[in-house]
Amino acid sequence: MRRLTLALTALAAAPVVVEAQITTSAIAGRVTGDGGAPLGDVTVAATHVPTGARYGVQTTADGRFLLPNLRPGGPYQLVVRRIGYRAQSRDTVSLTLGQTTRFDFKLEPAATTLTAVTVNADRSAPIIDRERSGPQTNVDRQQIMNLPTLSRSLQDMTRLTPQGNANSFAGSNYRYNNITVDGASANDVFSFSNSYGGISGVGPSGTPGAAAKSQPISLDAIDQVTVAIAPYDVTLGNFAGASVNAVTRSGTNTVTGSFYSFGRNQTLTGKSADDARTAIPSYSDYSFGGRLGGPIKRDKAFFFGNVELARRNEPLQFAPGDPGTVLDASTAKAIDDTTQARLGTSSGAIGPYSIRANNTKLFGRVDVNLSDVHKLDIRNNFVDADAGQLTRGVLNINYGAQDFVQKSRNNSTVAELRSTFKSGLSNSLVAGMTFTRDRRVPNGTILPQI
Q1: DSSP 9-64
Q2: C-beta atoms surrounding 422 within 10 Å
Q3: In the chain, what are the domains?
Q4: Which of 49, 127, 210, 425 gets the highest tally of CB atoms within 10 A of its CB?
Q5: What is the pLDDT of residues 192-203, one digit of tens each?
């Protein structure tokens, strides 16, 4: 079963404050002179320090400015200049995905001698924040690195949303969410993923590869995540629960990398909670990976790559004859013997059984500063996953032949061209193509089940 998705989006904006962008951030503000009079034709320049990318605009007649299509994060250096006035700057400016950060400046005539400049922040928060378009939770890279996570998933990050419960937001089923990565859809196009807990979907649900128990992208490739519940923004839609937007990391002028490994097994669990003399069945859950980013050409082009492998071996409980089950081992064996005699095929494993879940994630991204006006980034994300699907319970006795392997392969390519013109107009062109293939491979002869 295959599905191919093509997406092409273009957005043009006039010189007004644009809020809650999907893949970018913005800086807005007002420049005034003596007596609070607005200053027009003031040059406002922002430099993304890690990559040297430059953005510039001039204030309008009423002193207002907007720098859209900025890469989230930072740090940025913001400089304001006008002939006849002393320049001002702000260093270590950090931007949040989908938010407009406001900075106001008051310029002094150049002839004035300044001994010191003190900037005092107004700590009294307004009742209404005009820079926000509705209830929204932002998770930046520092939080992603510091927050505890067991599954290394987006779900572990979105749990910070007060209106959320696992993958459910505002009381809606997780299938009503809209998940995007770099502006491209990352939803489960077939909706085959199991609920893993009903409305919430506590496992990897609603994303490509979820049925194969895989995450859609490595957590080490994510830069920022936002969760919008009810945004007043025409650029966000197609959801009834939450709009989960994520942007990926990119390279900088500094070569950085990391190699990591996470794992656990039965030795970290100890003995059974019911009987201290009973050992936990052997299991394993390991992840290995690494990332590397740096410059291709300083201040011009950059690369970032991430590789991650996950291997899981999970034993099932409630084999026939286990405490609490309704079917004893001898009866289960008799059913298997009958199946063998009448149908000529075995029912598969009767006793202890383990299922495996494996996935490989490959991510690559290239960013190019074409000019002070145009910025281009291209990224590709590939996930290959497979997982056994057999389940057992006290009243649900399944044989090994009833197992099947869910295989999922997802390849997503996205290109984005962000343009900011001196006239105040800006444009973001996003083109994406996603190829998804999900299929099931039976473990034995397909038999009717009663």
Answers
A1: EEEEE-SS-----SS-EEEEEEEE-GGG-B--S-EEEEEETTTTEEEEEE--TTSE
A2: 11
A3: 21-106 (2.60.40.1120), 136-442 (no CATH)
A4: 210
A5: 655 454 444 455
